[in-house]
Amino acid sequence: MSWLSRTRQTMLRWLQKALYLILKTRLIGPQQSQGNPDGTIRVYAFLYPSLAETLVVDREVAEFEWPQPLQKGYAAAGLTPFFHVYRRAGGPFRKEGKPVTSKALQQLAQWQIAHPEQELEIVPVRVFWGRGPEKEGSFLRIWIQNSGTLGGRLFTLMAILINGRNTFVHFSRPVSMKRLVKNTTTPAQLARKTGMLLRTHFRVVGQTVIGPDLSHRRTLISQIPNRPLVKKAIDNAVDNNGMSPPRARKKALKYADEIASNISYTTVRFLDVLLSWVWNTLYDGVKIHNIEQLKTAARDNEVIYVPCHRSHIDYLLLSYVLYHSGLQLPQIAAGINLNIPVVGPILRRGGAFFIRRSFRDNPLYAAVFDEYLHTIFTRGYSAEYFVEGGRSRTGRTLQPKAGMLAMTLRSYLRDSRKPILFMPVYVGYEKVFEANSYQKELKGAKKRKESLLGVVGTLKSFRRNFGKVHVTFGDPVYLTEFLNQRQPEWRQQDHAASEYRPEWARDVVDQLAQRIVTEINRAASVNPINLVAMALLASPREAMPETALIQRLEQWSAMIEAVPISQMTHVSEGQPEDWIDHAETLGTISRLSHDMGDLIHADDRQAVSLTYYRNNVLHLLALPGILCCLLSHRQGMLFSQIHESVRALFPYLKAELFLPWQEDELEHQVLGWLQQLCSAGYLKHDDGIYKAVDDRDSAYNELEAMAHLMMPTLERYYLTLALLNHHGSEVFSAERLEQQSTLIAQRISLLHGLNAPEFFDKSLFRTLVNQLLKQQVLAESDDGKLAIVGGLELLIVQLEKALDGSVRHTIQRSL
Description:
By secondary structure, the protein is an alpha/beta fold. It has four domains: 3-209, no CATH class; 262-522, Glycerol-3-phosphate (1)-acyltransferase (3-Layer(aba) Sandwich), CATH 3.40.1130; 525-701, no CATH class; 710-814, Arc Repressor Mutant, subunit A (Orthogonal Bundle). The chain is built from 32 helices and 26 strands. The strands form seven sheets. Strands 9, 10, 11, 12, 13, 14, 15 and 16 form an eight-stranded mixed sheet that branches. Strands 1, 2, 3, 6, 7 and 8 form a six-stranded mixed sheet that branches. Strands 18-21-20 form a three-stranded antiparallel sheet. Strand 2, helix 2 (51-60) and strand 3 form a beta-alpha-beta unit. The radius of gyration is 30 Å and the shape is globular. The protein starts with a helix and ends with a helix.
């Protein structure tokens, strides 16, 4: 190496060190393999030529254990480790650069054709000096946040100085130039082909990470009254309500202003700093699962995030995770109740748009909201909404409300050029922020209205520890594929004639909603509090010797892993002793010291709280729980008898717990769990008969404990069916049956001291009644009364096989 090269190398190193006194970088994009394959030459593609980006990439590749390009001998091969595919725009107000085929790229193409056996990999890299979506007409914002498109060193320096502490480096997966040689004959052709591929790729990366250009909020709002559905709604308001056209238009503008988000990069940065502090103060961090699949799918699809709804923090948590994972921030549907002073404007600038709880009787508002959603979807923004509607107070996934899905489908029928995928997201808390208020509401207290004073009051919670949060991205649901399966001829139909509300839409939307919540449950992650809650609440008086609890935690966690509900099922790492200590630290259980061994128990308040965390993952052990219920009270059963009983109950369990299997998959699942229960020592299998182990065996206690997981569910079913059977047809309406079932359940809960508020949750009885109607066990007459059609007695017989005689008698006496 000449003295000139050594001097240049030294200067670059000093410059790099000086740069990193200013920068704080985060790596985003796909996970990269560690190390460099033998014999592979790796070069880096930029959007524009940039010394600063060259220095950043040279430093950051060390994270992947790749050779640093400024130290590697590319010169010997006549190659340059960096090249660009655009030349900067000539004028300061020109946004677009000019596509170029740089000399470095031409050299690479020539070298690859001359060495066809050699592997040459190109890694596309984007360096984002901040990640604010660009505003049309906001030149200063564009200069600072994406300086490469507009100017040279001055604007890059401005970007580094202002946003350097928030620099994101996106490494894409390496592209093999060796493969691109196919069907090319000259180096020039290969270079052009490579440049076109990279420019397309960079555009996709830009939209995936930053998002599309944002129209000014006032411009977007002013356009809403000119949109087709709103124009028609304005005309109807003029014709039917006697409203003048200017007044109707003004009202539409007011609605649009009430709804529309106003995403602000300054606010996003503020929230990033704030939430980073929150997760490290209130929580022990965030654990993310299965996000790589999302990163790949997000490049070619409009992503609509559909998370479960457990806490108000869900809004902020998902945006935080996406931002730190290098994905664009979604537009978030938030209830109008959150549009309170101080908080509302912050949420709006963080990407929230506000929606009224009900607007069925307000067609003008509905049209404005429809058009706003259509604008979001057609312009390429990602979006987020909760299919459950409200937060779950019991910890169960709630029955979906399909309103937002119906609007999404209508928008897609109008313009299906950009494919849409729904991304189910499971959020698992070790301790939910609103646990105390949920308990009060379940006991009958009214839901407190959101207020600034209430937000300030929550600050006292920062003195407590809330454990970890797990975020799992499920299997995506592709809307086009779903429609093709459910309504194959949907593209050929004239949807405009029915205002994009075809007759089949309602059934398809309901099916889509069920599919999404099922996918949410399939993505469940099991944390220590979930496991401790399931194990401890399955014991009498919610107390166990510590050694017995450790053994149960080991067995049940191993079973969940052995027969997972999906490939995404993740059970917390660590040992049962650590899980118990962690639960004790969070205050969810208590310890009683004793000379013969410590006891772990939950007092009344803790027991009610633990039901929430048990319910998060109850569906994972629902099937073995039912099997244990069936076999704990009988001498033995043939597999055919077991399968018959489970098949009879399955539609109702599936509707309540969103179990993923179809009926033809049930036999395989039942057999798998029977084998697992036999391996665990809970059951014996002799001469084709499955039966429980001897009740004097310690394993019998474990079988009873697992049965206890699902026993309250079967008791609720039996209660409603026995009530129907006792009074006969044409006595109850659906609403009256739900009310009466709830009252009886409350009475039984008081008599037997059940610390499980969901036992008398009216919504669960509503789900059961709806499923009885779907299964045609019941029918609803013209006057709204329920008639027993058939199959009721068969269901009662199957439930009697699983329930203890004393329980049945208690329910019968309460009718």
